[in-house]
Amino acid sequence: MKQTSTTFSTSKKSRLRSFCEKAKSVKFYMAIFPILWILLFFIFPLLIIFKISFAEPVAAMPPFTEIFSWGHDQFLQIRLNLHNYFSVIKDSYYVSAFLNSVVLSLASTAMCFLLGFMMAYGIYKVEDRLKTLLLLLVSLSFWTSFLIRIYAWMNLFSAHGFVNSLLMKSGIIDSPIQFCGNYYAVCCGMVFCYLPFMIFPVYAVLEKFDKTYIEAAYDLGASPAKTFWKVTIPLAKHGIAAGCILVFATSIGEFVIPELLGGSDTVMFGRVLWAEFFNNLDWPMACALAMVMMIFIILPVFVFKKKANI
Question: Rounded to an integer, what distance in angstroms lies between the CA atom of residue 242 and that of residue 123?
């Protein structure tokens, strides 16, 4: 009898061990595809950009020199051009473009947070049968091309657009107001385009947290305003952080909105990068700008993630 029970327990352990090994192999094969995807379409192109950023511009195709070459004695020669990175830091044109991009991105993120949180909280509080309709209306803008949406704003705020025509017919103004061609128009376009990136993460978090926390706060005598600031906001911090990161990271390198809604004085990082790459054909400088922008996007995200404990 003891031998039978021992044999049974041994076979049970062996089956459990084999099951765990199969589970580990399945997890490995499931994880290898996203890892390969990131390596192939993110890390590898980033390394190519990093390599070109140390080259020198030449009148050829491709318009940059090779940083690795073999000498006459079969020695590997490495020529790194650091002038591009020093220019990004020292040149006032690049510094002002970067500061303008950061300020506009922060302003757009703040506006998206104020509007997006109110909209997400409103959708969260309505009846269940209306939530799907409201979420559909929020995502409706994604059904149209990004470029067409910006052209719609151009027609709306142009000198002969709907807003100026309405104001002039109402007798409020005598001549058209120049709405486009400034940083305010660029910020408005960014808020319009990236507002759903704030609404959806915040709503997803609000929809998941336990409502008994709010009921407990009311039972303990907290007012609705105090419950909102002491319970709702802390519970929604992960969605707020995700929305802020999405809006800031996508808006800081924006090119289309400043190009169409901004004027010649609205210098932003994306426009400078475009000019260096396509107009000046200075690919090493453009790659250096891209790497600097990437660093200034990734580092604050990691710091914010660590501080917020997300």
Answer: 18
Three-state DSSP class for residue 64: strand
Q: Which stretches of 228-282 are DSSP H helices?
A: 233-235, 237-251, 256-261, 269-274
* Residue 227 neighbours by CB distance under 10 Å: 18
Q: How far is CA 147 from the centre of its chain?
A: 18
pLDDT in tens, 233-283: 888 888 998 899 889 988 988 888 998 888 777 888 888 988 898 888 899
Cβ atoms of 304 and 238 within 8 Å: the answer is no
CA distance 161 to 53: 43
Is residue 249 within 8 A of residue 297, CB to CB? The reply is yes
- Both structure tokens of 187: 């910020």
Residue pair 277/74 in contact (Cβ under 8 Å)? The answer is no
pTM of the predicted protein model: 0.81
In Å, how far from its chain's centre is CA 175?
Answer: 39
Helices (H) and strands (E) counted in the chain, each on its own, are 15, 2
Residue with tokens 């660590």: 306
Tokens matching residue 260? 């169409």
Residue whose tokens read 């149209």: 144
Task: Quote the CA–CA distance of 52 and 286 in Å, as a whole number.
Answer: 9
